[in-house]
Write a structure and sequence with these properties.
The protein is built from 21 helices and 21 strands. The protein has an eight-stranded parallel barrel with strand order 2-3-4-5-6-7-8-9, surrounded by six helices. It has a four-stranded antiparallel beta sheet with strand order 14-21-19-16, with no helix packed on it. The radius of gyration is 28 Å and the shape is globular. The N and C termini lie far apart (about 85 Å). The structure holds cobalt (II) ion (CO). Cobalt (II) ion binds near residues 31 and 194.
Length: about 650
């Protein structure tokens, strides 16, 4: 067994050439399952193996932050703070690390400084030692407060370069960004290659320049997506990077990090020595090999191990599946190639932001809207507008002036630090919430970051254990497992698998109730459920029979007769409005509010100036204010607030003034 050394954050220094310690951060408990399992690892899973992981001899364990916080609350019904405390109580040897989105903390927008400060204070108290702090735009003004707070509360502040490829992202530019962060007091610097596009040669050049021009210890974080990451690590380490990010092999590869076992084998013949306990690694490997099939929502069998497309368009893997999903929602999946062509143009228009949360979402959806609407920037989400206003930070390169004018009209971008515009949030953060739901200060911070999701969780937590609705992640897993089951026996031959699943699920749910027979109208069938099982028959044709009472309960074991059910009356077609209308530019949800955060609704009789917003169509999680084409009066709202609308569906009938 190799000798283990415990390394503290402050120890990242380059030793003598004969024995250069190579620090390895294990991302298995954060990035790896975020990349491979849609972040669905449970605290229980972690607690089964944490002692062994802690004994491996890693430089640090990345266990918190990124998407884990949101997913804990939303899908796992877990308190993320409790996860952190539990890990800390057992991982005594290895520093714990988190990924922090600078002023965005763990959310998708900037938060005021008081929230950043308390979040970091509590994260340190609960067990985070190392904070990897990044900003999607590499705007150091968005990192400043977070770095200062981490230092104030005694943590290790790791600055970050969000790596991307563009005409303005040169080695000189990255060195400048690094120097700004060094001046702010960072202890080490991470090159964060979220898409897996950092080539070995580019890594060698970038690390060499940073080593030459700064004294800062360097760590490299890459993803195996394009297949280059392990070679990239080799070149980066040879150029002077002292630490790399890996995951245990069953949680590595694909869009996750390179496997730690592979990297150890590669470096075993060099001066670099990671001193990890191979026996412990084998135990960790075995554990995750067995766990993976029970947690993975999408098995990789059908995926390419290597995604060569990422090398062409530089779009991170997760973002591509999002784009496909968004196009599918709009019934425009056939336009995916047009979106791939449009995306780099949007990125250039908006000053080449790196594609990472939240800019990946903002840029991706604008590209989708430019393609779907047929006219570039005729439809602009509030988020893109905020981006153009500078509310996310400074774009890496100047934006296209004509496009900005089209997006902003007469509004002027801000020039200062975006968070300076935000009022402190903590004094009245939980106003209006039942105080019994808030148990500790950490809850207030969770609520500030994800108000709806946290409140939902608090309410769930407040219920007696036996009355809590099922955990969403369990429901998903059941669905997934059921979908993989072979088709049921042919009792109901013309039912689709999905119908049968829904019905079986219903039977599961009501299994404990006493009932003789339930008849459901589903699609074109009348489905009867009784003691002998499920049967179905085609529906009586529309308008034919009067509704029949459910058939009396048949004796157990005798086949149930399908009951006749009245067919649904077809919806009355809405009379087309006579005058001009404002139509939905894309599929989405209609809101009467003229803009996000504007409580007053537009109503019939209101006069709207040309270009002013009348309503919102929310699509792809972004809010799109819909503008009046000319000065007009609202004659009638044709859709109810909060209801779905289809592309080209009239939403508001108007009269030209
Ligand atoms: Co990553």
């Amino acid at each position: 067994m190799t000798k283990k050394t415990t390394i503290k954050p402050q120890d990242i220094v380059r030793d003598s050439i004969n024995h250069i310690p190579l620090r390895i951060t294990d991302t298995t408990l954060r990035d790896a399952h975020q990349s491979l399992w849609a972040t669905r690892m449970r605290t229980d899973d972690i607690m089964h193996i944490i002692d062994v992981i802690d004994s491996v001899g890693y430089y640090s364990l990345e266990v918190w932050g990124g998407a884990t916080f949101d997913v804990c609350l939303r899908f796992l019904r877990e308190d993320p703070w409790e996860r952190l405390r539990q890990i800390k109580s057992r991982a005594k040897k290895t520093p714990l690390q988190m990924l922090l989105r600078g002023q965005n903390i763990l959310g998708y927008k900037n938060y005021p400084d008081d929230v950043v400060d308390r979040f970091i204070a509590l994260a340190v108290q609960n067990g985070v030692d190392i904070f990897r702090i990044f900003d999607a735009l590499n705007d150091t003004r968005n990192l400043e407060v977070a770095i200062k707070c981490v230092k104030k509360y005694g943590g290790h502040a790791q600055g970050t370069i969000s790596y991307t490829v563009s005409p303005v992202h040169t080695v000189e530019n990255y060195v400048k960004v690094a120097k700004e962060q060094i001046a702010m007091g960072i202890d080490s610097l991470c090159i964060k290659d979220m898409a897996g596009i950092l080539t070995p040669i580019a890594a060698e050049r970038l690390v060499s320049a940073l080593v030459r021009e700064t004294k800062i210890p360097i760590q490299v974080h890459s993803h195996a997506t394009s297949g280059m990451a392990s070679s990239t690590y080799v070149e980066a380490v040879r150029a002077g990077a002292g630490a790399i990010d890996c995951a245990i092999s069953p949680m590595a590869g694909f869009s996750s990090q390179p496997p730690v076992e592979t990297m150890l084998a590669i470096f075993s013949e060099t001066h670099y020595n990671a001193s990890l306990d191979q026996d412990a690694l084998r135990q960790v490997c075995k554990f995750f090999l067995e766990l993976a099939p029970t947690r993975q929502l999408n098995a990789h069998a059908a995926d390419n191990i290597i995604d060569p497309e990422v090398l062409l368009h530089h779009i991170p893997g997760g973002m591509i599946s999002n784009l496909r999903g968004q196009l599918a929602q709009q019934g425009a999946l056939d336009k995916i190639d047009q979106v791939f062509d449009e995306l780099p143009r949007v990125r250039a228009d908006l000053g080449y932001p790196p594609l990472v949360t939240p800019t990946s979402q903002i840029i991706g959806i604008q590209a989708v809207m430019n393609v779907i609407s047929g006219e570039r920037y005729s439809l602009v989400s509030q988020e893109v507008k905020d981006y153009a206003l500078g509310l996310y930070g400074r774009s890496p390169a100047p934006m296209d002036k004509a496009i900005v004018k089209k997006i902003l009209g007469k509004e002027k971008p801000i020039t200062g630090r975006p968070a300076d515009l935000l009022k402190p949030m903590l004094p009245d953060a939980t106003e209006g919430i039942d105080p019994k739901l808030i148990r500790k200060e950490e809850d207030i911070i969770s609520y500030c970051l994800f108000p709806e999701v946290a409140l939902d969780y608090f309410k769930w937590r407040a219920l007696p254990t036996d009355q809590r609705p099922p955990i969403p992640a369990d429901v998903e897993l059941k669905k997934q497992r059921d979908a993989n089951k072979p088709a049921p026996p042919s009792a109901v031959p013309f039912l689709a698998q999905a119908d049968y699943d829904n019905i079986s699920h219903l039977v599961d749910k009501i299994g404990s109730l006493s009932f003789s027979q339930i008849t459901i109208q589903h699609g074109g069938s009348a489905i009867s459920i009784n003691a002998s099982g499920v049967t179905a028959a085609p529906l009586a044709t529309a308008g034919s029979a009067a509704p029949a009472a459910p058939a009396p309960a048949p004796a157990a074991g005798s086949p149930a007769k399908p009951a006749a059910v009245q067919a649904a009356t077809p919806a009355q077609p809405v009379a087309a409005p006579a005058g001009p209308t404002i139509n939905a530019p894309l599929n989405g949800t209609f809101y009467r509010s003229p803009g996000p955060g504007k409580p007053e609704f537009c109503k019939e009789g209101d006069v709207i100036e040309a270009g002013a917003s009348v309503c919102i169509v929310e699509a792809m999680k972004l809010f799109n204010p819909i503008k009046a084409p000319f000065k007009c009066k609202i004659v009638k709202m044709l859709v109810e607030h909060g209801k779905p609308v289809k592309k080209d569906e009239p939403m508001v009938s108007i009269e030209k003034l």
